[in-house]
Specification:
Layout lengths: L2 H15 L6 E5 L14 H4 L7 E3 L7 H6 L2 H7 L6 E5 L24 E4 L5 E4 L2 H14 L3 E5 L21 H10 L7 E3 L1 H12 L1 H4 L13 H17 L10 H4 L17
Parallel strand pairs: 1-2, 1-3, 3-6, 6-7
Antiparallel strand pairs: 4-5
Helix pairs in contact: 5-6, 7-9
């Protein structure tokens, strides 16, 4: 075989073996998911700010626990190609008692477990929120992906009595930070989405946020509200100097970078 043919054949083989272009995969609940109603999750407008393809696998009503139990997480992991970014954001549906909710995680930030029997008779060993998120981060790393753990976002009515400042997030904000922190040496990062949304909401002011951007309840945003939350995440990427900030569209680059010192609520592990 001629040398030129050998080189050509090798190049074709290398192209076939090379992974596809990187993409962004999103895992979360309804606050991130696509919706066809008057509410919208922030993952939908977020796609317009990124030059990488975005696959939004968020699902309404899910918690970290139920997303794993229902096999949604395994399906997501099967789609990861080396170099993909995976954004993980849970917390809105993860509270409550494991005795009465099939979404609630065991309380705590360690390896505590609770054994329960579901309505269909299935026996489930329920982990803590931190354990579920640490598993997700490690699964992404082992699949060759890059995990981006995000804190949950604030509800529209999470203001102080003067309606000037957002209140600190609940325990799932530091839980998510803790989960990501275990694997920062392996490429995991944490974005305080709660904090960056707080900046955006406070800049807009209470009257333009709630109920203006929350047509049905205090949790789910309108399409306009989802865009505010998506832009806040982009702002977080910029302030964090995250690698994903290198893949912004023109519209993404145009989003103002606002990184105020002391602007974020103080999150303390329980």
């Amino acid at each position: 075989m001629k040398a030129s043919m050998i080189l050509k054949t090798s190049a074709v083989a290398a192209a076939l073996l090379a992974p596809a272009s990187a993409k962004i995969i999103m895992a979360g609940d309804s606050t991130m998911a696509q919706s066809s109603t008057n509410i919208q999750g922030w993952g939908t407008p977020f796609a317009q700010y990124m030059s990488l393809p975005v696959t939004n696998l968020s699902r309404g009503g899910r918690s970290a626990r139920s997303y794993v139990r229902e096999g949604l997480w395994a399906t997501l992991v099967s789609q990861i190609v080396r170099g993909d970014y995976v954004i993980i954001e849970f917390g809105h549906n993860d509270g409550g008692s494991v005795a009465t909710s099939d979404r609630a995680a065991t309380f705590g930030d360690g390896t505590e477990t609770t054994t329960v029997t579901l309505a269909d008779g299935t026996v489930e060993v329920v982990q803590t929120f931190v354990t579920y998120e640490k598993r997700m981060v490690l699964d992404v790393i082992n699949a060759g992906g890059i995990p981006v753990v995000s804190s949950t976002t604030p509800n529209g009515d999470a203001w102080d009595t003067a309606h000037t400042t957002l209140l600190p997030g609940n325990r799932f904000v530091p839980y998510s930070q803790y989960a990501a922190g275990n694997y920062t040496s392996r490429g995991a990062t944490w974005i305080d989405h709660y904090g960056y949304v707080a900046i955006a909401y406070e800049d807009l002011g209470y009257s333009k946020v709630y109920p203006a951007l929350f047509p049905n309840d205090h949790t789910h945003t309108s399409p306009a509200g989802a865009d505010v939350v998506a832009k806040a995440f982009v702002n977080g990427l910029k302030c964090k100097n995250h690698a994903l900030a290198n893949f912004l569209t023109t519209a993404g680059k145009a989003i103002p970078k606002v990184c105020r010192s002391g602007a974020f609520p103080t999150h303390t592990m329980p």
